[in-house]
Design goal:
Helix content: 25-40%
Number of strands: 6
Low-confidence stretches: none
Shape: globular
Distance between the termini: 44 Å
Mean pLDDT: 96
């Protein structure tokens, strides 16, 4: 990975942001009724459903989804710093949790839902605003009727690993 990768990532983000709704919000039941989890995520990417408010608060964007995978891109900024002068671990965790949860979400059939049962993060390198962008790539490892698991890596455009995480989600009938 190189500066070419960074330029590609930034161009892809600009393209995705043009399609997204400008106002964050939550999809209504009628908007998602009859849609699989993957279809819901694709509708968000196409601008048919709003992005969640947390993405604006913490400056990250859903970049792509496929069956069992979700990719988010974030920009570590000064406003994300902790008192030690680096990006707060909660920012790492939120970005990774989003990739993990949305990867699991893409596997949900109509009428099924999930919630996080367990979530583990390993921070392996500090982040500062000198890193222009990072990507959290979440992938489902196991999809079951009652339990799904996933893992995610947080990487820079140069291939540097900043953190990795895993989750266990409980799957149930949606209300």
């Amino acid at each position: 990975m190189s500066d070419d990768t960074l330029q590609r990532w930034l161009a892809e983000e600009a393209e995705v942001r043009q399609r997204l709704q400008t106002e964050a919000g939550l999809a209504t039941r009628s908007q998602i009724e009859g849609l699989t989890g993957l279809q819901q995520m694709q509708a968000m990417l196409s601008g048919q459903l709003p992005p969640p408010p947390i993405s604006q608060t913490l400056d990250f964007t859903l970049m792509s989804v496929s069956d069992g995978e979700a990719v988010f891109q974030g920009r570590p900024l000064f406003r994300h710093y902790n008192p030690l002068g680096t990006v707060h671990g909660g920012w790492f965790a939120t970005l990774l949790d989003s990739a993990l949860g949305c990867a699991v979400h893409t596997t949900m059939p109509v009428g099924r839902a999930y919630t996080t049962l367990e979530f583990k993060v390993n921070l392996v390198r500090a982040l500062t605003e000198k890193v222009p962008a990072v990507r959290a790539v979440g992938r489902v490892l196991h999809r079951g009727r009652q339990v799904s698991t996933a893992e995610a890596n947080l990487v820079g455009h140069d291939g540097t690993l900043y953190a990795h995480a895993s989750t266990t989600c409980i799957v149930f009938d949606a209300r």
